[in-house]
C-alpha cells in the first residue's frame, strides 16, 4: 500500500524550510508562489528564477564512471594475457643479461591500447548520452498569458504547466486542476498501480508521498486524463532529485555482437594457451630442455599473434559511428544493440497517422442528416467556405455561382461546429501569416473548421466553459466534454448543460438515439443509421479520416468518471454529423515501401482508424493490393493466439485496433519467426514497443512513456526514416563482418608463419612479440577502422535480411578467414625460406626476418583494399568513396617503411635495413595476396554465371 510508505525527505534543506505543498489549498499555493493562474509567469520572472534555481535537471552519474571504463580496459582477457607475455619475456631477457626491451614495449603498448580504448569508449558513451538529451521532453507551459512549448530543463518554480496522458511529469508541482488524472508513480513509490489525482483536496502534513494526491512528482508518468500544475520544485530539489543516486543509469550492457566478440576473445586466449602448452610440451618431449627458451620464445610470439588486440575497440567505435550516421538520417538510437540488429528486420509494423501520412489534417467534407458540404481552404487557416452539395447541382441557371448557406443549413452546422471547437484540446496559433496548431492535428483541423463557420474556440470557451470531461484514449476512440450553457448559446435543445462527444463514427452512432434535423432533434430511425454508416464508408473509402459528432443536453451535472460513464453518460446522444478530413500520405513513403519490399522486408499497417480509410491509404502506398483483406480489432478480439499466428502471415493491414492488439500482433509475428520493428506513440503502446525486436517511438507526436520504452526514436515521425535506418543497420553489420574477416585472417596467417619456422628447421622465431603487436594494433587497426566507414554497397537493400541470430562466421566468413590465413602463410613461408637462404650467403643474416615482417604488413594493405567488396573487383570501385581507407593504407605503409629505414625505430623494433631489391621482393610477394583475392572474386563470378546459365 502506498500509505505505508515512509515519508520521504522534505523538499528543502533545513535552512530553506520546505513548504508542505500538499497541505496548501490551490489559492494559498498560488499566493505563496505569487503567480496569476490565467497568465503564468512573465518573461522577466522566468529569467530571474532561472538564474536563481538553475536548470530543471537531475545531476545523475549516468553511465560508467571514467575510472570504471579505464579499469574495464585492463581486465580485458587479451590485455591480461599480453601482460603475462611481457612478464615472461622480461624474465627471459633479464636472465640472458639483455635489456628487457620487448617487455617494456609490450607494457607500453598495453597501456597505450588501454588508454586508446578508454578514450574511444568514453567518447562513444558521451556521444550516446548526448543523443539521449536530444530526445528530452517538451512541456506545454503558460507564460505571459500565452501557451507555448518549452524544453523541460527550462522550467522554473511558479510555471503553470499542462499534463496529459503519456507525458512524463517534468517537475514537482501542486495540481490546480485535474480531469480524470491518473499518474503512475512507481519510480518514486514502487507502487505499480496508477494513482488518481485530485486538485481540490488539502492533506495533513504527515501524509505519505504515495498518498499526496494533490501533488505530482517529477519522473512519474501520466497514464490517463489531464491536469494543470503549478510547478513548486525543480531540478535537484524535487523528490526525484533527492533520490537521484537511485536512478537507473544509462544502459551500457554490451551489445550481442560485443558479447560475441568477448566470447571470441576468450576462445582465442584459451586456444593460444593450449597452443603454447602444446609447443612447449611437444618440444620438451622431442628435444628435452636444451631448447626450452627458444620454445618459450616461439610460443610467446604465437600467443601474441593469435589475439586480435585491436578488434574490441574497432567494434565499439563502429557501433558509435553507426548511431551518428543514423541520427543524421533522423533515427535516434536509444539502445546500442539496435544498431547492429536493425539490418535484420523482416517486418515493419507501422502506425498510419503521421508515420505513413503527413498528419496535416484538413476537413474536406461535412455531412449532417440532410446535407453534405464541401469545405474549402488549406492547412489550419480558419478561412474557407462551406458549399452545400446538392444545391450546387440544382443551380442549373447559373452553375458558376457558388451555393449559399441557408438558415436551415446553419441550424445543423452551428451545433456541429460548436461541438468541434468545444470538444477539443488543441489550440490554433497564428504567427507570421502562418497558421499552426498546438496539440493533436485531428483536433487542429476541427478548430480550423469551426473558424470557417465563424466559431472561434477562445470565444466559445468563455461562453460555454468546460466543467467536466472524459478524455480521449486510443482504446475508447472518443472524447466527451460537458459545458455550461447559461446563456443558451446553442440554438438547439434548451439546457444549461451540454455534453459534446466526438470520435469514431460507428461507436458514437451506437450511443445515439436521436439525430439533429434543422433545429429539432428527431428519433434516429434504422434507415438513418444505415444512411450515416454508408456515408461514413463512402468518405473512408476515399482515404479520409472520418469523425462523428454528437451532443446531449444534461439535466444535472455529475462528475463523469471513465468507468461509470460508459453506459450512463455517453449514451442517448443526439447525432450531429460526420466530418471527413484529408490526411495525405507522405510523398516519400511510397518509394520507401518499395525499397522495403526489394529488401525482403514486409511493411504492415496497424491503425486505430477505419478499415476503409486504412485500406485506401495502404493501397495508395503499395502496402497492400486493392481489395486485400483488412483485419479489424473487433475480428482480432475473437481470434485465439494460434489463429492469429496463421492470420498474420497474410494480413498487411489492421484497422480499428487498440494498443493491446498491437502486442498480440507482434507476438504472433515473432512466433512465425519474424524479426519485428514496431512503431508506437501512445502511453499504452509501451508493452508492444518493448516486446518488438526494435521498438520505435515517434519523436514529434510520441509520448514520453513510449519514448522511454523504445529502442529507437524517429525524429521526424516518418516511415521512410525506418527504412533508412534499416539500411544503415545493414551497412554497419556488413562493415563489422568486413573488418572481422580482415583482422582475423591476418592473425591466422601470423600464427601459421611463426609455427612453420621451427618446423622447417629455421633456428629462430621470425617475428618478435613487439613486431606482432605492431601489426595487430597499427597495421591491422588503422585500415580496420577505415573499413568501418565503408559506404553502403549498391545491393544492400536488394537482398533479403540476414538472421540476427546467425553466427558472425556464417555465410562463409569462417571459411574465408581460414583460407586467407592459409594463403597468407603459404606466401610468407615461401618468401621466408627463400630469404633465409639468401640471407645466409652474406650481409646481415637477420634480414630475412624483416622481410617476413614487411611482407606480412604490406600484404595486409592489399587485403584491406580488396576486402572492400566481396563481388566487385577493386578497380570497379570508386577509390575515393572511402578516402579514409586510402589514407589509412598510405599512412600505415609509410610507418612500416619508417620502421625499416629510420635508425632509432629500427633499433627499437629490432628490424634490419633492407636493400631496394629486397624491398621490391617483399612488395611483389605481398601484392600476390591482393591478386589472389581478386582472382577469387573472378572465379566466384564465373561460377555464379555458370550456375545461372
Ligand atoms: P494510428 O494508430 O495509425 O496513429 P489513429 O491516429 O487513427 O491511427 P488513434 O489515435 O488511436 O489512431 O485513433 C483511433 C480513432 O479514434 C480515430 O480513427 C478516430 O476515429 C478517433 N479519434 C482520433 N483522435 C481523436 C480525438 N482527438 N478525439 C476523438 N476521437 C478521436
Q: What would CATH call the architecture of the largest domain?
A: Up-down Bundle
Look at the structure and name the CATH superfamily of the largest domain: Calcium-transporting ATPase, transmembrane domain
Record field, number of beta strands: 27
Bin the strand percentage: 15-25%
End-to-end span in angstroms?
Answer: 74 Å
Helix content: 40-55%
Largest sheet report: 10 strands, mixed
Word description of this protein:
- The protein has 949 residues and is of the alpha+beta class.
- The protein has 5 domains: 2-60 and 131-249, Calcium-transporting ATPase, cytoplasmic transduction domain A, CATH 2.70.150; 64-124; 255-323 and 728-948, Calcium-transporting ATPase, transmembrane domain, CATH 1.20.1110; 337-355 and 588-725, Rossmann fold (3-Layer(aba) Sandwich), CATH 3.40.50.1000; 361-581, Calcium-transporting ATPase, cytoplasmic domain N (3-Layer(aba) Sandwich), CATH 3.40.1110.
- 48% of the residues lie in helices and 16% in strands.
- The strands form 4 sheets. Strands 10, 11, 12, 15, 16, 17, 18, 19, 20 and 21 form a 10-stranded mixed sheet that branches. It has an 8-stranded mixed sheet with strand order 8-27-26-25-9-22-24-23, with helices on both faces.
- Helix 8 (256-287) packs antiparallel against helix 10 (311-328), helix 9 runs antiparallel to helix 26 (719-759) and helix 22 (641-647) crosses helix 23 (659-671).
- The longest helix has 41 residues, at 719-759.
- The chain is elongated.
- Residues 351-353, 440, 442-443, 472, 474, 477-479, 502-504, 547, 607-609 line the site of adenosine-5'-triphosphate.
Amino acid at each position: 500500500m502506498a500509505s505505508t510508505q515512509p515519508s520521504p525527505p522534505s523538499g528543502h534543506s533545513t535552512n530553506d524550510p520546505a513548504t508542505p505543498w500538499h497541505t496548501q489549498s490551490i489559492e494559498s499555493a498560488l499566493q505563496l508562489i505569487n503567480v496569476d493562474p490565467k497568465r503564468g509567469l512573465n518573461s522577466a520572472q522566468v529569467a530571474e528564477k532561472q538564474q536563481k534555481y538553475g536548470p530543471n535537471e537531475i545531476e545523475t552519474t549516468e553511465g560508467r564512471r571514467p575510472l570504471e571504463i579505464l579499469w574495464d580496459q585492463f581486465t580485458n582477457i587479451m590485455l591480461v594475457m599480453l601482460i603475462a607475455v611481457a612478464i615472461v619475456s622480461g624474465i627471459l631477457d633479464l636472465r640472458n643479461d639483455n635489456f628487457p626491451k620487448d617487455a617494456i614495449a609490450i607494457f607500453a603498448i598495453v597501456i597505450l591500447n588501454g588508454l586508446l580504448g578508454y578514450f574511444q569508449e568514453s567518447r562513444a558513451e558521451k556521444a550516446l548520452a548526448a543523443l539521449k538529451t536530444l530526445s528530452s521532453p517538451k512541456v506545454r507551459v503558460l507564460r505571459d498569458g500565452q501557451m507555448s512549448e518549452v524544453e523541460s530543463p527550462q522550467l522554473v518554480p511558479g510555471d503553470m504547466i499542462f499534463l496529459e496522458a503519456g507525458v512524463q511529469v517534468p517537475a514537482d508541482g501542486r495540481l490546480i486542476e485535474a480531469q480524470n488524472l491518473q499518474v503512475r508513480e512507481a519510480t518514486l513509490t514502487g507502487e505499480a498501480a496508477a494513482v488518481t489525482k485530485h486538485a481540490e483536496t488539502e492533506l495533513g502534513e504527515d501524509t505519505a508521498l504515495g498518498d499526496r494526491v494533490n501533488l505530482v512528482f517529477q519522473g512519474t508518468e501520466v497514464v490517463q486524463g489531464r491536469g494543470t500544475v503549478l510547478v513548486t520544485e525543480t531540478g535537484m530539489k524535487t523528490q526525484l532529485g533527492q533520490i537521484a543516486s537511485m536512478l537507473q543509469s544509462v544502459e551500457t550492457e554490451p551489445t550481442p555482437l560485443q558479447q560475441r566478440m568477448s566470447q571470441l576473445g576468450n576462445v582465442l586466449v584459451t586456444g593460444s594457451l593450449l597452443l603454447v602448452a602444446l609447443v612447449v610440451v611437444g618440444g620438451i618431449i622431442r628435444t628435452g630442455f636444451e631448447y626450452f627458451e627458444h620454445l618459450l620464445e616461439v610460443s610467446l610470439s604465437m600467443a601474441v599473434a593469435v589475439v586480435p588486440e585491436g578488434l574490441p575497440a574497432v567494434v565499439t567505435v563502429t557501433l558509435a559511428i553507426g548511431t551518428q550516421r543514423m541520427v543524421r538520417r533522423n533515427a535516434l538510437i536509444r539502445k546500442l544493440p539496435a544498431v547492429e540488429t536493425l539490418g535484420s528486420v523482416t517486418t515493419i509494423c507501422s502506425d498510419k497517422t503521421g508515420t505513413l501520412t503527413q498528419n496535416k489534417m484538413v476537413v474536406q467534407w461535412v455531412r449532417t442528416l440532410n446535407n453534405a458540404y464541401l469545405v474549402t481552404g488549406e492547412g489550419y487557416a480558419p478561412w474557407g467556405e462551406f458549399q452545400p452539395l446538392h444545391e450546387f447541382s440544382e443551380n442549373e441557371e447559373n452553375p458558376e455561382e457558388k451555393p449559399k448557406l441557408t438558415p436551415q443549413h446553419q441550424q445543423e452546422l452551428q451545433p456541429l461546429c460548436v461541438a468541434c471547437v468545444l470538444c477539443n484540446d488543441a489550440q490554433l496559433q497564428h504567427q507570421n501569416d502562418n497558421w499552426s496548431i498546438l496539440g493533436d492535428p485531428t483536433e487542429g483541423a476541427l478548430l480550423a473548421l469551426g473558424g470557417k463557420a465563424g466559431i472561434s474556440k477562445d470565444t466559445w470557451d468563455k461562453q460555454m466553459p468546460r466543467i467536466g470531461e472524459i478524455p480521449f484514449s486510443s482504446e475508447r476512440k472518443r472524447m466527451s466534454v460537458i459545458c455550461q450553457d447559461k446563456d443558451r448559446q446553442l440554438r438547439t435543445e434548451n439546457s444549461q448543460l451540454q455534453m459534446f462527444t466526438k470520435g469514431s463514427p460507428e461507436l458514437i452512432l451506437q450511443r445515439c438515439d436521436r439525430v439533429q434535423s434543422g433545429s429539432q432533434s428527431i428519433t434516429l430511425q434504422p434507415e438513418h443509421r444505415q444512411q450515416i454508416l454508408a456515408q461514413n464508408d463512402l468518405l473512408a473509402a476515399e482515404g479520409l479520416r472520418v469523425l462523428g459528432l454528437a451532443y446531449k443536453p444534461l439535466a444535472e451535472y455529475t462528475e463523469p468518471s471513465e468507468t461509470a460513464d460508459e453506459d450512463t453518460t455517453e449514451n442517448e446522444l443526439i447525432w450531429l454529423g460526420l466530418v471527413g478530413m484529408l490526411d495525405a500520405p507522405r510523398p516519400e513513403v511510397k518509394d520507401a515501401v518499395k525499397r522495403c519490399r526489394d529488401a525482403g522486408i514486409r511493411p504492415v499497417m496497424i491503425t486505430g482508424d477505419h478499415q476503409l480509410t486504412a485500406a485506401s491509404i495502404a493501397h495508395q502506398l503499395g502496402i497492400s493490393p486493392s481489395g486485400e483483406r483488412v483485419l479489424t480489432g473487433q475480428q482480432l478480439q475473437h481470434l485465439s493466439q494460434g489463429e492469429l499466428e496463421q492470420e498474420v502471415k497474410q494480413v498487411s493491414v489492421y484497422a480499428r485496433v487498440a494498443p493491446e492488439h498491437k502486442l498480440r500482433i507482434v507476438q504472433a509475428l515473432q512466433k512465425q519467426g519474424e524479426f519485428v520493428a514496431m512503431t508506437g506513440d501512445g502511453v499504452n503502446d509501451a508493452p508492444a514497443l518493448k516486446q518488438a525486436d526494435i521498438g520505435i517511438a515517434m519523436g514529434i507526436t510520441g509520448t514520453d512513456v513510449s519514448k522511454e520504452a523504445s529502442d529507437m526514436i524517429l525524429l521526424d515521425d516518418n516511415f521512410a526514416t525506418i527504412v533508412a535506418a534499416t539500411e544503415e543497420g545493414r551497412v554497419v553489420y556488413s562493415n563489422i563482418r568486413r573488418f572481422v574477416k580482415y583482422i582475423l585472417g591476418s592473425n591466422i596467417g601470423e600464427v601459421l608463419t611463426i609455427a612453420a619456422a621451427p618446423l622447417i628447421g629455421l633456428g629462430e622465431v621470425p617475428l618478435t612479440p613487439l613486431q606482432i603487436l605492431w601489426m595487430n594494433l597499427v597495421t591491422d587497426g588503422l585500415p580496420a577502422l577505415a573499413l568501418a566507414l565503408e559506404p553502403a554497397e549498391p545491393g544492400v537493400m536488394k537482398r533479403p535480411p540476414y538472421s540476427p541470430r546467425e553466427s558472425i562466421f556464417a555465410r562463409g566468413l569462417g571459411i574465408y578467414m581460414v583460407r586467407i590465413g592459409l594463403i597468407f602463410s603459404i606466401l610468407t613461408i615461401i618468401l621466408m625460406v627463400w630469404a633465409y637462404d639468401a640471407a645466409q650467403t652474406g650481409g646481415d643474416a637477420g634480414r630475412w626476418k624483416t622481410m617476413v615482417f614487411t611482407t606480412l604488413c604490406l600484404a595486409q594493405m592489399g587485403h584491406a583494399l580488396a576486402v572492400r567488396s566481396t563481388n566487385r573487383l577493386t578497380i570497379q570501385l570508386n577509390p575515393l568513396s572511402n578516402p579514409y581507407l586510402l589514407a589509412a593504407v598510405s599512412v600505415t605503409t609509410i610507418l612500416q617503411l619508417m620502421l625499416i629505414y629510420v635508425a632509432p625505430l629500427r633499433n627499437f623494433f629490432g628490424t634490419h635495413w633492407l636493400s631496394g631489391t629486397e624491398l621490391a621482393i617483399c612488395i611483389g610477394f605481398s601484392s600476390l595476396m591482393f591478386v589472389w583475392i581478386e582472382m577469387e572474386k573472378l572465379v566466384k563470378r564465373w561460377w555464379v554465371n555458370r550456375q545461372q546459365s
